[in-house]
Design brief:
By secondary structure, the chain is of the alpha/beta class. The protein has 2 domains: 142 residues, CBS-domain, CATH 3.10.580; 62 residues, Fe-S cluster assembly (FSCA) (GMP Synthetase, Chain A, domain 3, 2-Layer Sandwich), CATH 3.30.300. 36% of the residues lie in helices and 22% in strands. Strands 3-4-5 form a 3-stranded mixed sheet. A 3-stranded mixed sheet has the order 6-7-8. Strand 4 and strand 5 form a beta hairpin. Helix 9 packs across helix 10. The longest helix has 12 residues. The radius of gyration is 25 Å and the shape is elongated.
Length: 223
């Protein structure tokens, strides 16, 4: 799947000259935690999130530090904190450097971007123009909407294929027996993480209804 397959196309946006209070109202009205900021023609210039709005002088939540810590803060940080808490326009409040992607970007790379930059949404651009947005909930909907695998009969061979595909492999003898979808795993593993991974791999095999683990731990000499 790619960004274009799951992105929200009807994106709620803000403009740079919009009053900050109105931006907060728009987030609340639409039940969203952030909105891209665009200029005429849809060119993306920034993004405003709830985090940008929580430090406000109007409600007494502006950042305050003890005087001895304030002395250690750079002038740039002091200016940024003041502007965030006192800005009247979105242009002064928004985060201008936005992590964005293209319509053709694979979903796995979108997820990587979210994790690497600790963001909850990725604007989707066609050149510099905003054409959509992918949020964590879009990815969740894509997962929930996937068709269930066919309920075919599990076999020892199909279970073992899944076991060998997990990241630890199967370095020691493991036996998988199957009785009407009930799997029993027997053998030795290096540690509990290996055992849990093998159990999950067995449970993920189509046709498996339950897994009984009779695996025992034999740590290696290096552990």
């Amino acid at each position: 799947m790619r960004a274009a397959d799951i992105m929200t196309r009807d994106v709620i946006t803000l403009t740079p000259d919009l009053p900050v209070r109105r931006a907060a109202e728009i987030l609340l009205e639409h039940g969203i935690s952030a909105a891209p900021v665009t200029e005429a023609g849809g060119r993306l210039v920034g993004i405003v999130s709830e985090g940008d709005l929580i430090r406000r002088v109007e409600i007494g939540t502006e950042r305050r530090r003890p005087w001895f810590l304030q002395m250690l803060v750079s002038d740039a940080s002091k200016a940024q904190n003041y502007i965030k808490s006192h800005a009247a326009r979105v242009a002064d409040l928004m985060t201008p450097r936005v992590i964005a992607a293209t319509e053709a970007m694979p979903l796995t790379e979108i997820a990587d971007l979210m994790e690497r930059h600790n963001v909850k949404r990725i604007p989707i651009l066609r050149q510099d123009t905003l054409v959509g947005i992918v949020s964590r909930s879009d990815i969740l909907r894509a997962f929930a909407g996937q068709p269930k695998p066919r309920d075919r009969t599990a076999t020892p061979e199909s279970v073992m294929r899944n076991l060998r595909a997990q990241p630890f492999g199967v370095p020691w003898p493991i036996v998988a027996s199957v009785d009407h979808g009930a799997v029993r795993l027997q053998g030795a593993v290096r540690n509990r993480f290996h055992e849990e991974t093998l159990r999950v791999a067995a449970e993920a095999t189509p046709g498996v209804r339950s897994v009984e683990s009779r695996l025992f731990t034999v740590p290696s000499a290096t552990e």
